[in-house]
UniProtKB/TrEMBL annotation:
<feature type="domain" description="Sulfatase-modifying factor enzyme-like">
    <location>
        <begin position="152"/>
        <end position="384"/>
    </location>
</feature>
<dbReference type="InterPro" id="IPR005532">
    <property type="entry name" value="SUMF_dom"/>
</dbReference>
<dbReference type="Pfam" id="PF03781">
    <property type="entry name" value="FGE-sulfatase"/>
</dbReference>
<dbReference type="GO" id="GO:0120147">
    <property type="term" value="F:formylglycine-generating oxidase activity"/>
</dbReference>
<feature type="compositionally biased region" description="Low complexity">
    <location>
        <begin position="30"/>
        <end position="45"/>
    </location>
</feature>
<dbReference type="InterPro" id="IPR042095">
    <property type="entry name" value="SUMF_sf"/>
</dbReference>
<protein>
    <submittedName>
        <fullName>SUMF1/EgtB/PvdO family nonheme iron enzyme</fullName>
    </submittedName>
</protein>
<feature type="region of interest" description="Disordered">
    <location>
        <begin position="23"/>
        <end position="61"/>
    </location>
</feature>
<feature type="signal peptide">
    <location>
        <begin position="1"/>
        <end position="19"/>
    </location>
</feature>
<dbReference type="InterPro" id="IPR051043">
    <property type="entry name" value="Sulfatase_Mod_Factor_Kinase"/>
</dbReference>
<dbReference type="InterPro" id="IPR016187">
    <property type="entry name" value="CTDL_fold"/>
</dbReference>
<keyword id="KW-0732">Signal</keyword>
Amino acid sequence: MSELRLGAAALLLTTLGLAACSPGTDEPPAKSAKPANAAAASAPAQPVDTSKLDNPKPLPGDVSLPLPCGGELVLRSVYVLAQGSLDDREVNLGYPFSEGEAGYQQSFISGYRRDFINGQFSLQDLSPAWQKAVAPNLPELDQAGPLKPMMYFIGKYEVSARQYAQVMAQAQSLASGEAPPACQPDTTAAGRLPKVKLSRFEAERFAAVYSAWLLKHHRDLLPVSGRGSKAEDGGVGFVRLPTEVEWEFAARGGSAVSRQELEGRLFPRKVQGSDSDGPLGDWAVFNQVAGGTGQAARLMPIGTRLPNPLGLFDVIGNAAEMVQESFQLVHAGRLQGAYGGFVVKGGNYLEGEGTLFTGMRREYPLFGADGTEQRNETTGFRVAIGALSAPRSRYQELFEQWQKEGRLASLTDDIDAVQDPTKRLDSIIAATADPRQQAELGLINEELKRSVSLIGRQREEAAGNLIQSAALVAETINNYNIRLTNLRNTQAEAKARGDQTTVSMYAAAIANGRAALDGAVAIYIDNLASGTRYTDAVIQAQFQRVKEELNRKPVLGKSLVSRATLFVRHVGEYRQNRRADPATILKELLASAAARPS
């Protein structure tokens, strides 16, 4: 039955226009000064290393799916720490332009805005080979903790002309059941150019044909969201265009960079032995003529530059890239409610350096003036792996998370889950006989739960800030103690010399230092009391997030992780005892500093 359904699906794909994917003669004239197809046509048809056609720059953590005729499509994993499938992470997209900056007058297109991101796959949802590849890149978490890495997968490179041709050659065979065509692999450098001059519909048709081919021949290699004992219970992966937030979060560096770096104009470009970012030209293909280098603007093969922090190539410049959504304007820090053409991300090889930034986006029309599907000389795409968001195997988990997130008991330990007012309101609504009153109460209940969820998110962020702040206070206490120790040693030396004047001077400095130390300890204990105002689940979840962020800081990070770990333990003890002894706290803080590895 599954083969019959697959055949019907493939036939439907053909009906939707698979045959139209071959180049036509009714395409609009090129608008660029130096079109990509001209560059491809002029490129020498010299063979290249076949082992590097689809993955010219292998990296640890690469995963791949097979392509027809022995090729492969290489992907990179992107993770988000979340409490499950219904959780997500708030991220900022675009850029907050200042007046006078390039892009300021188009802030309504690419301006600063809020969005949310999560992955669809846990580590257990992946094939053994993928698990082995991606596990080393995941953070080390307490298995009993509330958070786990949820992943999505996005193309390491833009889809090349060679890959596009290999997949689309299978369309007729999938639709008709005929034998697939003989392989005619393209091993030229021109075949490694990103596939451009195709419509948004053709990019989606590529994803549909590739998905059908994978499901028919390599279903076992695809990830399955909510993988369970029964294959049909989970959501098997399929190929699609990435969403805009998936694309931009990954392009910015995702969880491989700090929050500050994530919101920068350009992704971090680390150079060994330097504190400054390297030149953008080492990471992106763009028009450098204005800069005086004389380099012509032309499309380049995939992977010719350096990767971003997540291991993605050409997210800035080279071919601009289509994403899944229709275009929406930016309004008041969010996307506005009207929908237009389609979104293109990252800029292209004709752009100048001053106009490029990671969150760059443009609106392109779906159709040309003559009614044909719009194709552009500078626009291509990369793909992502999607799956069902709510497979049957996750229904219970999703329902429990949905019920929990709107409860007042999730905000504080002072409210018992059984006596939660929102839960009692549910019971009242269910027992109401008047349908109209029941509907009105239902709306009020939903607004209440929405407000509770909003407050809960704000409290989670505040708890994370508290943990970081307390870790810094603990570090300050250690620094004060080092200073006090040095003052006492110097005073002892003066006393040994019989220098009473110096002894008296240092006595005053020691008294001031001790007062500062005691004040810092008092602030730390105040933070412990504040920590008990959040549920233990919130403290533990935010500690995992803070720990991940601090571990990215090369020097101070390890020390602050040690401080934050001790603070969370102290909060738990304060929650039980409702008090803390300053001398004991100071002793444990100093002991943790002494035990910390250098």
